[in-house]
Amino acid sequence: MKLYTFHRSSASFRVRIALNLKGLPYESLPVHLSRNGGEQNLPAFKSVNPQGLVPVLIDDEGHSMNQSLAILEYLEETCPQAALLPSNPVDRARVRSLALMIACEIHPLNNLRVLHYVTGELGVTEEQKNTWYKHWVELGLTQLEQRLSQEPQTGRFCHGDTPTFADCCLVPQIFNAKRFECDLSNVPTVMRIFDHCMEHEAFIAARPERQIDAS
Amino acid sequence: MKLYTFHRSSASFRVRIALNLKGLPYESLPVHLSRNGGEQNLPAFKSVNPQGLVPVLIDDEGHSMNQSLAILEYLEETCPQAALLPSNPVDRARVRSLALMIACEIHPLNNLRVLHYVTGELGVTEEQKNTWYKHWVELGLTQLEQRLSQEPQTGRFCHGDTPTFADCCLVPQIFNAKRFECDLSNVPTVMRIFDHCMEHEAFIAARPERQIDAS
């Protein structure tokens, strides 16, 4: 398989973790989101994904897929081991809802194109932009903390004692939050799970600075 | 089953469509997002969902689930007919990625809490807020149009000739876009599919103005 990826892209990071957890080898095809005016906007990549977003997974039959959570579901369906979703539908719903809390409520407000719009079109100051960033991350992570600390299904990972889609989404979000110096002191359960994930080779090997395009 | 819902909430609307398409009866429990300072913030609802977001589905065994796309997956797994995902994993990935383009790239930037922050904390004008809204909707729908008009899997619905998760997400987004008077003249394939959906009773019965809390 081939993965169009950018080392700092959270969505690419999610897929790299899932591929590693399943032990699936893949070739990294880097797309640098801030070099050359954004390589995602060049014709070469637009022909792969007209939306201009990474990640894009090309499977062994040449099928092209985008949207990180759709790719995770595809990997789960075609390569069930190691399972990244529990077997029970109610538990599966819990894992997916934790993943979506990150993918729909936190991350979309803080990606590059939105931050550019906030400073460019809305003309807010650098400080307001950072406040915006921290607001959505800290709000989202606090709500995640509330669930993870109170729901009995939480284990060493977000759901039980093996990694799931939720952990694939959580880890990249924390990397981002640290880069923007968000306050993480109020989310001890989130950080306990993050630290546990980062002891595992599948997560370590997916880190931004371990990618071939890390500068 | 019971559904905590708000008539104008796009995420609730998605779930109402899916329940109707599968012929599953449910009781609507309205949570008015702008009355009483936002009923989602009252203790009565916070005990149901500490995140304060609708929809929440309570299944017949009393399990509580949130995040609309996680609920759709749960319904698909527990009540496979009518199928809202194709059977082939590559096609399923396509449907999910279309749904996620709406759920992750368009909708999160335009919900109430974000619009409040933009006018409140960032202090932008009403006009800038409307420009913000239209920017993300029109950009996202243009990208969706590009895919739907070019990919051969598109049929009378987003994928083939029966409704899927993608249509459950598309219809509420168009309702919202119309409410904010977005320009929809450049997305003819999107609108052709929308019009086709709105001929079906499952979609019609899920419309905001057909809900018991519509004012």
Automatic annotation (TrEMBL), chains A, B:
Is Cell division a UniProt keyword of this protein? no
Asked whether the UniProt record includes Ligase among its keywords, one would answer: no
User: Which GO cellular component term is one of those annotated?
Assistant: cytoplasm
Query: What is this enzyme's EC?
Result: 5.2.1.2
MF annotations from Gene Ontology: glutathione transferase activity; maleylacetoacetate isomerase activity
Query: Which stretches make up the GST N-terminal domain?
Result: 1-83
Biological process GO terms, please?
glutathione metabolic process; L-phenylalanine catabolic process
Source organism superkingdom: Bacteria
Could you say which protein family the record assigns here?
Belongs to the GST superfamily. Zeta family.
This protein is called: Maleylacetoacetate isomerase
Q: Which organism is it from?
A: Noviherbaspirillum cavernae
What is the gene name?
maiA
